[in-house]
Amino acid sequence: MRVARSALTAAAFAILLTTFNAHAATAAAQAPGDTITAPVREALAQLPVRTEDRTGYQRTLFKHWVDADKDGCNTRAEVLLEEAVVAPERTGTCTLTGGEWYSPYDDRTIAGPRGLDIDHLVPLAEAWDSGASGWSPAEREAYANDLEDGRALIAVSATSNRSKADQDPSTWLPTAVGYRCTYVTDWIADKTRWGLTVDTAEQAALTNVLEACPNISMTATLAR
Hints:
Elements: H1 2-28, E1 35-39, H2 40-46, H3 75-83, E2 89-91, E3 95-97, E4 100-103, E5 108-111, E6 116-120, H4 124-129, H5 137-144, E7 153-157, H6 158-164, H7 180-194, H8 200-210, E8 217-221
Antiparallel strand pairs: 1-8, 2-3, 4-5, 6-7
C-alpha cells in the first residue's frame, strides 16, 4: 500500500510539475517578437479575463490606413493586393480596379474593391475595451495597421463587416458556419499577439464554438 501511495504521489507531482513548467514557459515569453505556440483551447485559457470599459474611446485614436513603407499603397490597399484571388489592376499611385476577392465571413466572391471593407478582426473599439486604452498612440497605430500577421486585417464584404461592426464573438459570428472555427482561433491568436483581455461573455462564446473544433495548435508572435 505504501508503494502504491508513493507511486500515486510521484505521478501527481509529475503532473503538477509538467503543468507548472508549461505555464512558466508561456509566462516567460513576454517580450515583443517572442512566439507562443499552444493548443487553441489552452491559449484561450491563458487570456486574462477582465471587465470591458469603453470610456474615452474614439476611432480616431487609432491612426489607420497609413502607408508605412512609403510605396504609395496604404494599409487598405496592401491587404487588397495580398488577398486578391484575381489580381486587380493598379494604376497611378495605388488606384485599384477590377479583381476578385473571397469574403470568408459570408462565403461570397466579390468583384472589384468597392464592395469590400478591410476588417480589423478584433475591432478597434473591442481592442480599446480590452487593454488598448492604456497604449501609446504609436502602439495603437501599429495595431490598426498590422500587416505582419495576416490574421489581423482581412478583406470581407462590406455587408458582413457592417453587420459585425464592433461586436465580439458573444454577439456576432460569421454567417458562414464552416468558417467559425478559423474565426475564433484567429481571434484568440490576435488577442494573444497584442496582449488583450477577454470578458466573461466573450470567453464563454469562444469556448462554446471551440467545443466543435479541433484543438489545433495556435501560434502568435507577440507585438508588444
